[in-house]
Amino acid sequence: MVRLLQFTLTLAYLFWTCGALAAQSGNDSPWWQKGVVYQIYPRSFQDTNGDGIGDLNGITARLDYLADLGIDAIWISPFYPSPMKDFGYDIANFTDIDSRFGDLADFDLMISEIHKRGLKLIMDFVPNHTSDQHPWFMQSRASKNNPKRDWYIWRSGRTPSAPPNNWRSVFGGSAWQLDPETGEYYYHAFLKEQPDLNWHHPDVRSAMLDAMKFWLSRGVDGFRVDAVNEIAEDLALKDEPKNPAWNPSRRDNDRLIHIYTGDQKATHGVIRAMRKTLDSFSGERVLITESYRPFDKLVEYYGTTTEPEAHMPFNFHLIGAEWKPAVIAKLIKDYESSLPKGAWPDWVEGNHDNHRLASRIEPAQTRVAAMLLLTLRGTPTIYNGDELGLKDVVVPPEAVQDPVEVLDPGKGFGRDPSRAPMIWDQSDGAGFSKAKPWLPIEPQFKTLNVAMQAKDPKSILSLYKALLKLRRNSPELSLGSIQVIEASKNLLAYRRKLGGKSLLVVLNFSARPATFKFRANTSQTMVKILSTGLDQTDQPNQVVPNKFRLMPHEGVIFGDLAQ
Ligand code: NOJ
């Protein structure tokens, strides 16, 4: 029965192709379609001023590493002035740099060094909320008739002791905070120290778009826009319905169905205004949005041809996916078929909000995951440290930093474990900092660090470099169509094709060897180009037999000599 199901699945995917209209040559495609994005969590990348926290000069000092790795663009999580209640996602000034990270001169140096190396800079932009220490909020809370009062969402309680409605914060608890000064509540989708801006107010809109212009004029190549689905609220403030599927193991926020606080129509108007702002600047600037949504909701963030929104709404579906060929094949199919015409896909395997890839899947599968991410159709985003195969770091209770762990402890939602410092070398502090780092260092840093892995031709770092080089040199990988040709119990295989050229990717998801059968005749011209094992034993251009045996946890990319 199981075999029959696998066979049916295999057949269903056979001959199924997407992106057939993909560009025939890559020359006119924008950089963000051809390129690979690398996310830097700046607190944890490189400390140069000895405070145990990374900084912008640290990023500048490590640019050669990034250029050598072979990525194209860097997205840096927020480095604006911040009280750091949510580690930079609580912003107190949208047009400056937090002194812990440096200053505007450091920023200008960093961006010019980024551009000198032919790389791009994507900044984080956080439109949903400010810090409660932002001067706008301080004015807003000062009195009911302050001109900035309506820049935020204020209401009287339903009763003297109850908030205006049942809305809940993403981080848990009521989304309303009583401000004793004026006796009204303000709305916060995240922490109480992160009051929500009222995007229905025209002055908020223009002030925030001005902040974007400030950075665009300074040369940034795009934005990753934070928490877009939360941007607008229905100001009728009706209660949200209870979620019947909620149970105590789920996030507190899942108790409700967010029909009045999530994905509102007005939010799309905001993203359109951001896109217009970007498009009013010269060059190819990219707008990426952050929202964890099913594909049908996610793709709404592309907007339409006449009213475009994001170039790429981040696709996080690999993060939550069960690590099985059939599941991933279905994701590819569902994603591709939900994309509006002309919309460009993207894939993400990790970030600062989730457990690390190597802790979510079997560590031995991380090489297969690297090959998957860097051979799928769509711009890949790599999270710093995943190229070293790093796992979550254990953070003892006394070292916890993340407010999510503090507010909802012990459920595994805390984000510190994936935010631990980069490990560069064997020295104390792993080359990250000479001071006590803000989060613990990976205990195995002496063997897993960048310097050690760079010397090892078979390390996972060497694999990332080889894959990035292959992707750069093979337009069929960056821009070609994708055709899933097998999704069985252990194997996922797909073809990437552009013009007359194609590559075949075969991934073994199991801990046992697995045999891939080429279609009749094709094997006579198929050659192995790259294996996740990085073995150098094969002769170049040696034709493979019609059945190919993959090692446990191995992925292989094949080329075709006939092309
Ligand atoms: C998403 C960010 O990635 C996360 O780190 C942050 O806590 C929330 N948005 C709130 O800004």
Explain the overall architecture.
The protein starts with a helix and ends with a strand. The protein has 18 helices and 19 strands. The relative contact order is 0.12. The chain is globular and about 80 Å long. The strands form four sheets. The protein has an eight-stranded parallel beta sheet with strand order 10-9-8-4-3-2-12-11. Helix 7 runs parallel beside helix 8 (265-279) and helix 13 runs parallel beside helix 17. It is an alpha/beta fold and 563 residues long. The model is unreliable at 1-16 and 20-24 (pLDDT under 50). The structure holds 1-deoxynojirimycin (NOJ). 1-deoxynojirimycin binds at residues 86, 89, 126, 190, 226-227, 290, 352-353.
List the helices and strands and how they pair.
Layout: H1 2-13, E1 16-18, H2 31-34, E2 37-40, H3 56-61, H4 63-69, E3 73-76, H5 104-116, E4 120-125, H6 135-142, E5 154-155, E6 176-179, E7 184-187, H7 202-217, E8 222-225, H8 265-279, E9 286-289, H9 295-298, E10 312-313, H10 317-320, H11 325-338, E11 346-348, H12 357-360, H13 366-373, E12 379-383, H14 403-407, H15 445-448, H16 450-455, H17 460-473, H18 475-479, E13 481-487, E14 491-498, E15 501-508, E16 514-517, E17 526-531, E18 547-550, E19 555-560
Parallel strand pairs: 2-3, 2-12, 3-4, 4-8, 8-9, 9-10, 11-12
Antiparallel strand pairs: 1-13, 5-7, 6-7, 13-14, 14-15, 15-19, 16-18, 17-19
